[in-house]
Specification:
Length: 744
């Protein structure tokens, strides 16, 4: 007999795309290593034309090269999104869901020489989530593949990809009762389960015997988020006398928490504001086939910005990243990819993915809520099947885990009175007031309204953000994709959200730019650019430092708009971020002045003559940049969208008159303006499949106000997403008519 051994088989796989039938050897196949994705390029270059179909991963396995064991399990940690496993031509299992671990007992099918084929399929279908969302559904065998070798008697490997051990600590004053439940299989007389808890230094704390036991930790050290992410380790062994038959180690943390509708998140009896980010798992040029060093870099950046929480969107992430969250003290929202489009045929898949998420992640102290869905009401919130699906998931979570709460992310258009909104224990909304219409100052008041109407329902913001690329302006405007507007937007949202402690959590969308192959905006197709950091993790946008100024204490200073060098103004406005109370700015060695700012955003004005070297000084910290006086605006800083028939700066504007750059609310103030708007909206309604309304979705006053804040040009541009287009000639005619109407 030998103890459990895990044999990694990531190397030397044959890969084939577009085969008509199952491959029977590696001959003629491309040799790859996993993690691997076939959409690492075409899933990020735009056009919404990335390959979605079946690809094959093929590997030779020689049994004599494996440890001598009684049972062999194939362990697949991520295959997106449906996979079928064949061994020596025999079909062993189908798995639906691309983000979780599953295993197959292959013992009885192994021969001396074996051909393993994993058929991975990311084709569209109506039964497996996700199928509609603003991110690329990368196909691939994109996480580790192992063979787990165990004795006949072992901790269960068959139950939804779990470890066969659960740990549930409960704080009792200065101590903790740790309830341990193990799931051994094929136990025989004389065998027993031995349990031992070790502290962070590896010293034994307490031990016990039994498949179930409550172990008491005296003077327990609490897992307290980023302040002290203390972890204990449970070692569970199946023994027969002095012989260890199987062993599993589980790290866990002892902590208590509650979410208070007035005071937000409470950790171990202390207020602990959850202010953080969301994270997608993909990378430029890699897709979602990440290595440990990529996960570590992501975690380092998230910690640097000062986040206390991460929403791991919109699916189960790699176990290694959950481990990092435990180690670094990040508080986690974990969710399944039940997103955007409710599919009546997908109910069983939501249930199985939720079971896998909870079983595989139950022991992580970082996780405090399980997410039921995200923006699932694209077609309305009153669908009985959708509601029933949510009730089932909510009850399922509570039956499987009595220690955590349920939540979900609601689409901004969903009325706060809808029954659906109040199904989970706590709720959050995805709001983009100030980017997709509306004004930035609408965000805080919306949450105040919800809180006043439902004072006992914890409310948070699960997504907010706006896109920024390497475009620049001295006059930032909503929809311009400049780094300056993104910085302004987040300055405003920080001040609104961080002042409202009743908000149980706020999550920036997103920490990193990510792949969304259907996107064609901002001048770089195939990506969502709302990240605080670029897709390649090489550049931290100014907004990154706005959060760092509010959320961290290690001293720093940051000069904004470093990439915006050429300036036409005679006097340039300069913004500096710092977590120190005072900043002094020097221009070519001469002090411009010292500024104090309670909001961490320091403003200066600098004469723009020739070339000026700027140096910001705060305490012992310095940062530098350069500005240059130019006579004409550098067009390299200005977005010219190839997909747009007109750019805003190409539109004729008459002082005191309306134009396509006017907001709908201003156009609607005059009778003639209303007539023009009516004709535009009539074309839109005709183009949207006969003007059918979307599934009973009601427009709240906030939604109507948000829409009225669009410029007419931006509104017509967004209509391309619903296959309604305006020609350049049409838009110029509309603009000419608007130019004749006085602004009221």
């Amino acid at each position: 007999m030998c103890m459990r051994q895990i044999i990694n088989i990531n190397q030397n796989w044959g890969f084939a795309k577009g085969l008509a039938e199952l491959p029977t050897s590696l001959e003629g196949l491309e040799i790859v290593s996993v993690p691997h994705s076939w959409n690492n390029i075409d899933g990020q270059d735009g056009g919404n034309d990335y390959f979605r179909g079946t690809c094959y991963y093929v590997k030779n396995i020689v049994k004599s090269e494996l440890p001598n064991s009684e049972r062999y399990y194939l362990e697949i940690n991520g295959a997106n999104s449906t996979s079928n496993v064949y061994l020596n031509g025999e079909h062993l299992r189908k798995h639906d869901g691309g983000y979780s671990t599953y295993r197959i007992d292959i013992t009885d099918y192994l021969k001396d020489e074996n051909l393993l084929v994993i058929a991975v399929d990311n084709s569209p279908n109506e039964e497996v989530y996700p199928q509609m969302a603003d991110f690329t559904f990368y196909g691939g065998l994109y996480r580790n593949v192992n063979i787990v070798c165990v004795n006949k008697t072992h901790f269960d490997l068959d139950f939804f990809g779990g470890l066969g051990v659960t740990v549930t600590p409960e704080i009792k004053g200065a101590d903790a009762d740790v309830a341990v439940k193990t799931y051994p299989v094929n136990m025989e007389d004389g065998q027993e389960v031995k349990l031992t808890v070790y502290d962070k230094e590896g010293k034994e704390v307490v031990s016990g015997v039994g498949e179930e036991a409550v172990l008491e930790i005296k003077d327990v050290i609490l897992w307290h988020g980023r302040k002290n992410p203390y972890l204990y380790t449970l070692k569970a062994q199946i023994v027969n006398g002095d012989t260890v038959l199987d062993e599993v180690s589980v790290r866990f943390g002892c902590r208590s928490f509650k979410i208070d509708p007035e005071n937000g998140f409470i950790l171990n009896g202390e207020e602990y504001p959850l202010r953080g980010v969301s994270r997608h798992q993909d990378r430029w040029g890699l897709g979602n086939a990440l290595l440990p060093e990529h996960h570590r870099e992501d975690m380092d950046l998230i910690c640097e910005v000062g986040a206390t929480t991460i929403r791991l969107a919109h699916y189960q992430h790699d176990q290694y990243f959950y481990d990092l969250c435990d180690e670094r003290g990040l508080v986690i929202w974990a969710e399944i990819p039940y997103i955007s489009k409710h599919m009546p045929g997908g109910r069983e898949n939501t249930i199985s993915q939720m079971k896998e998420l909870i079983v595989q992640n139950y022991n992580h102290p970082s996780i405090i809520v399980w997410g039921l869905s995200n923006e699932i009401t694209m077609s309305g919130a009153n669908d009985p099947d959708l509601l029933e699906n949510h009730y089932i998931l909510n009850d399922l979570v509570h039956s499987m885990d009595k220690t955590r709460l349920t939540t979900m992310a609601c689409l901004t258009a969903v009325d706060m009175d809808e029954k659906y909104v109040h199904i989970p224990d706590v709720v959050s909304y995805n709001h983009y007031f100030g980017w997709y219409g509306g004004e930035t100052d609408m965000n805080g008041p919306w949450f105040d309204k919800f809180h006043a109407k439902y004072p006992n329902k914890p409310i948070g913001c699960s997504e907010y953000g706006c896109e920024a690329l390497n475009w620049h302006t001295s006059n930032p405007q909503q929809g311009d994709y400049t780094e300056e507007y993104q910085a302004y937007y987040h300055e405003e949202l920080i001040k609104q959200f961080f002042a409202r402690k009743y908000m149980w959590a706020t999550h920036v969308w997103n920490m990193f730019d990510f792949g969304a192959d259907a996107r064609a905006e901002g001048g770089e197709n195939g990506q969502n650019h709302k990240g605080l950091v670029t897709f390649d993790r090489k550049y931290k946008k100014d907004s990154f430092y706005a959060y760092k100024a509010w959320l961290t204490t290690d001293p720093f200073v940051h000069l904004c708009s470093k990439r915006y060098v050429d300036r036409v103004e005679d006097v340039v406005k300069i913004t500096v971020y710092s977590n120190l109370p005072e900043v002094e700015l020097f221009a070519n060695g001469v002090s411009v002045g010292k500024v104090k700012a309670e909001d961490h955003f320091f403003r200066f004005e600098v004469k723009n003559e020739g070339e000026t070297k700027l140096v910001a000084v705060a305490g012992d910290c310095k940062d530098e940049s350069v500005i240059k006086k130019v006579d004409k605006f550098n067009e390299d800083y200005r977005l010219k969208e190839g997909t747009t028939v007109l750019n805003w700066f190409d539109i004729t504007e008459v002082e005191g008159r309306l134009s396509l750059n006017s907001k709908l609310r201003d156009i609607s103030k005059s009778f003639r303006g209303k007539l023009i708007l009516g004709k535009v909206l009539l074309k839109v309604m005709k183009g949207m499949k006969g003007g059918k309304k979307g599934g009973g979705m009601k427009l709240s006053p906030e939604m109507k106000e948000m829409m009225m804040s669009f410029t007419l040009l931006r509104m017509t541009g967004l209509m391309s997403m619903v296959n309604v287009s305006f020609t350049k000639e049409e838009l110029l005619k509309i603009n000419a008519k608007l130019n004749k109407i006085k602004i009221k």
